[in-house]
Specification:
Helix content is 57%, strand content 6%. By secondary structure, the protein is mostly helical. The termini are far apart. The mean pLDDT is 89.
Length: 523
């Protein structure tokens, strides 16, 4: 990868990150044609081992002092311990695992969003995880490995303040959540920009890669673009690599979702496999409900004045109100800091964050979409004033605190009841010391509507272990309410993809029968 795009930065972490970028992009292209099964994974691993020894990359580890190597080991043990707990993020069961199952069994499927709208995302990070899930990482703990790589980067680059972020990120180590890589990659790129890294082409490419993993990170390519135009000599050739990644991202989204950017139905090019307008409308309404933490009905929200929208979002019940208020305060403080500093680069960072925040607030102002803003602001404000000793002490103290919360989740449930994810944490099990904890749930029912035979998890809303093709119950209800249902484009070949159609009388009877069975089981 470095021979193609140049070196992002020297050191073993730089080579690993370039490898992650290259592997993810190649596998994204490959997944259009074949599944990311063991026949894709094994050659990739062998190629990696070949270069590891051929280029003598193991010598890079000898550059660490004994103290630094011990520090990496100490932090890695804590990361691997935290990554061994049971997954508790609900998206793990409803989005991450089903996406990875589709990728490993079929690859990217045209119009998959018609079957289950959530699957239309097909994040590039899940493509990367899927490729390693057959043999190397069957427990889906790639995020834990990324945290170890992040640790190596921090120590290689002596960016000690970033050690303070690791304890918080431990909460994302049990699942292949795309939130963790985009936070880590954005902080790495930001540090390289602040350190004067001049490889704008690769920095822009990596920033677009981060955007492709999660489009709410739009601030990062904006920042690198502004940096290229106004600080360095404008050179649009350096943006070609990033432009190619953006094109691949758009093609992937069109293939799986029918529109350029999931889940926004902007840029309608008339593809026959795009989702039903009724389903998109329901999804949009749900995003608005999530903005207000489901504390108001859609009709109530529609009647809000502009002042009501702001006031009710800021003063939601529970911890999310505190996070929303903290966002406003953080952006205000950072804007004042930017005005005082009058530094061109810091100004561009502030502008980029404000653009991102405005877009998120306009579409769906859920706290998880702007968590990265807190990390960025803290890093810019304190990266010059946080030394190694303070950072190690902060890491040790907060790691102990957060692992205690993972081990004894009743503490969260008792003292922060509004943090709903705390209710899904299980706590420490001795078995996780030798094998990461995973759930098993293989109870399901099978149904047929039109030419589609599908499976539904029995008495459970998600399909993380249900054989494919599987549909979440919520989408079955939404589809039948809209009097539509997903159908195979080719009734004899799932790989050809899905579309939707208005149900005939016979198909409505089939769908109603399925719903009756599902509702009776849930009772």
């Amino acid at each position: 990868m470095e021979k193609f795009s140049g070196t992002l930065f020297h050191g073993i972490s730089g080579k690993i990150l370039s490898g992650i970028l290259g592997t993810s992009l190649v596998w994204t292209i490959v997944s259009f044609f074949i599944p990311l099964n063991i026949y894709v994974e094994i050659p990739t691993i062998l190629l990696g081992l070949l270069y590891f020894f051929k280029e003598k990359l193991y010598l890079e580890f000898y550059r660490f002092s004994k103290k630094d190597f011990l520090l990496i080991t100490f932090i890695s043990v804590i990361i691997l311990l935290s990554g061994s707990y049971y997954p508790y993020i609900l998206d793990h069961f409803g989005y991450y695992v089903p996406t990875i199952k589709w990728l490993t069994e079929y690859g990217l499927i045209k119009g998959i969003s018609n079957l289950d709208l959530t699957l239309g995302q097909m994040s590039i990070w899940h493509i990367f995880q899927a490729g390693f899930s057959n043999f190397s990482d069957p427990f889906l703990r790639i995020n834990s490995i990324l945290l170890v790589i992040y640790t190596i980067y921090i120590i290689e680059r002596k960016t000690w303040v970033q050690l303070c972020f690791l304890p918080i990120l431990l909460f994302l180590s049990q699942s292949p959540s795309p939130d963790l890589p985009v936070i880590i990659f954005s902080l790495l790129i930001l540090n390289e920009i602040l350190s004067g890294n001049k490889n704008i082409g690769l920095l822009f490419g990596f920033s677009v890669f981060v955007f492709a993993i999660k489009p709410t990170m739009i601030w990062l390519p904006i920042l690198v673009f502004l940096n290229n135009i106004f600080i360095f000599k404008p050179n649009f050739k350096k943006l070609l690599f990033g432009g190619a990644i953006l094109l691949l991202f758009i093609i992937k989204n069109i293939w799986t979702f029918g529109y350029p950017v999931f889940p926004v139905s902007i840029g309608d090019l008339g593809f026959s496999w795009k989702p039903s307008p009724e389903v998109l409308k329901t999804s949009s309404q749900y995003a608005i409900l999530k903005t207000y933490d489901m504390q108001y009905s859609f009709d109530e929200i529609q009647r809000f004045s502009t002042l009501d929208h702001i006031k009710n979002w800021i003063f939601l019940k529970g911890i999310k109100s505190k996070i929303n208020i903290l966002l406003i305060i953080s952006l205000f403080v950072f804007s004042v800091f930017t005005w005082i500093k009058k530094n061109k680069l810091i100004t561009f960072i502030c502008i980029s964050l404000l653009i991102k925040s405005i877009l998120v607030l306009a579409f769906s102002a859920q706290y998880r979409f702007f968590m990265d803003v807190f990390f960025v602001i803290f890093f810019v404000l304190f990266h010059k004033y946080w030394n190694k000793r303070k950072s190690i002490a902060a890491f040790s103290l907060f790691s102990l605190f957060f692992i205690s919360l993972l081990s004894f989740p009743n503490l969260i449930q008792q003292y922060v009841p509004s943090f709903q994810l705390g209710n899904f944490m299980v706590g420490f099990k001795k078995q996780q010391l030798y094998q990461p904890s995973v759930y098993h749930y293989q109870q399901f029912d099978s149904f047929k509507v039109g030419n589609l035979k599908f499976n539904v998890s029995k008495n459970y809303p998600y399909n993380f272990e249900t054989p494919l093709p599987a549909i979440s119950t919520s989408f079955i209800f939404d589809d039948t309410k809209a009097k539509i249902f997903p159908q195979l484009i080719d009734k004899n070949n799932i790989s050809k993809g899905f579309t939707w159609k208005r149900m005939t009388y016979k198909e409505r009877k089939e769908a109603d029968a399925a719903i009756n069975i599902i509702e009776n089981i849930n009772k």
